[in-house]
């Protein structure tokens, strides 16, 4: 088997896994929980899919310029994956890095032609894209709250990717530049590594995106609530080490008892399901959402106060616009209690208790509003006569 056959075979394998990753990311991650993070991840895998098909086609047709263009474009995919994780973590996503790396890489590889500069150009391009993988690893390991176990294989593979890129870059200074024949082995190794890198990225993306979707939870089952509690305790423990701003938001449907009485349990159950779907669609992808009972949702999210306020306003507005059974004279609304760790601390039980009390206070004040844990909620707890 010659080098062309090997390149074509590896290209087909890369195209196959990139296609699978694109289909799963769009069909399961983005459509189930649309967000900037899942959008960037979808773009990354779609870019990888198109590029690998282009590289394989160029290799099969022996059209070197086409192969180099798509190879350069492919180099932007790791940067888009990194941008997706930054969006997931709630920091600046820097989505322009991926297109910039891809366009610059393609231009550099084509400009190098068959001259002695191709080998240095290839090494520079490979190192540049490995830096994006290394930046993901640094961001992932730097903050304990980000160290999701489902992303551990991808983090390890990202570190290995950066190490390979750095070693390849150093080798370019040690060995004299050639027309690229010395890169044959490196191309095979990098192609095999890209297969493993893509597979680990897919596991991380799907695992994170489906944690709170219908593929991974049964919201009304006690087991689902127990899983939420276990996950929340673990994430809060990690957050306490880094001191990041986290909050628990406790939401409950107003007039749930009346809705059950007038429409029955089936109507309340259907409304509760759409209520939970609305909550999940509003809050960011990195949030954990659980439901201890019908008509109730609890959200654990890592956001600052300004962001939490925006999410609360949006979710209450969308809940009030939910369609209900025509036989019900009651329009849906919800009350929310907001318990930030800066006030309550990182203990989950305390956050749930204070959040529930704040939601009850919001409901008693007319509903369709939110209440932040503070002096008013504390006075309510210390003075039982104030409770209805």
TrEMBL record:
Domain of life the protein comes from: Bacteria
Coiled coil regions in record: none
Membrane-traversing stretches: 6-32, 39-57, 69-89, 96-118, 124-142, 154-178, 184-208
Keyword Transmembrane helix: yes
Alphabetically ordered keywords of this record: Membrane, Transmembrane, Transmembrane helix
Name of protein: GGDEF domain-containing protein
């Amino acid at each position: 088997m010659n080098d062309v056959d090997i390149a074509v075979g590896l290209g087909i394998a890369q195209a196959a896994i990139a296609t699978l990753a694109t289909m799963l990311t769009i069909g399961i991650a983005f459509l189930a929980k649309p967000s900037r993070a899942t959008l960037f991840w979808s773009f990354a895998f779609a870019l990888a899919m198109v590029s690998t098909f282009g590289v394989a086609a160029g290799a099969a047709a022996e059209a070197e310029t086409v192969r180099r263009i798509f190879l350069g474009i492919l180099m932007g995919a790791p940067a888009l994956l990194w941008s997706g994780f930054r969006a997931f973590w709630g920091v600046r996503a820097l989505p322009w890095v991926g297109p910039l790396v891809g366009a610059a890489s393609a231009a550099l590889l084509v400009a190098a032609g068959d001259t002695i500069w191709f080998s240095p150009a290839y090494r520079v391009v490979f190192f540049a894209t490995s830096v994006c993988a290394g930046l993901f690893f640094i961001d992932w390991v730097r903050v304990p709250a980000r160290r999701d176990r489902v992303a551990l294989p991808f983090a390890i593979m990202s570190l290995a990717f950066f190490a390979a890129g750095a070693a390849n870059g150093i080798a370019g200074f040690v060995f004299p530049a050639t027309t690229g024949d010395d890169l044959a082995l490196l191309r095979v190794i990098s192609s095999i590594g890209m297969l493993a890198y893509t597979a680990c990225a897919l596991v991380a993306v799907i695992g994170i995106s489906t944690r709170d979707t219908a593929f991974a939870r049964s919201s009304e089952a006690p087991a689902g609530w127990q899983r939420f509690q276990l996950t929340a305790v673990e994430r809060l423990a990690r957050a306490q080490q880094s001191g990041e701003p986290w909050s628990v938001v406790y939401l409950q449907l107003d007039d749930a008892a009346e809705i059950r009485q007038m429409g029955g349990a089936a109507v309340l159950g259907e409304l509760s399901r759409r209520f939970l779907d609305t909550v999940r669609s509003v809050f960011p992808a990195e949030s954990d959402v659980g439901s201890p009972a019908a008509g109730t949702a609890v959200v654990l999210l890592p956001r600052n106060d300004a962001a939490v306020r925006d999410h609360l306003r949006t979710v209450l507005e969308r809940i009030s616009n939910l369609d209900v059974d025509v036989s019900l004279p009651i329009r849906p609304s919800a009350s929310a209690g907001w318990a930030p760790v800066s006030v309550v601390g990182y203990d989950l039980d305390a956050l749930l208790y204070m959040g529930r009390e704040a939601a009850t206070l919001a409901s008693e004040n007319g509903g369709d509003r939110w209440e932040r844990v503070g002096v008013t909620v504390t006075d309510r707890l210390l003075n039982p006569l104030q409770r209805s």
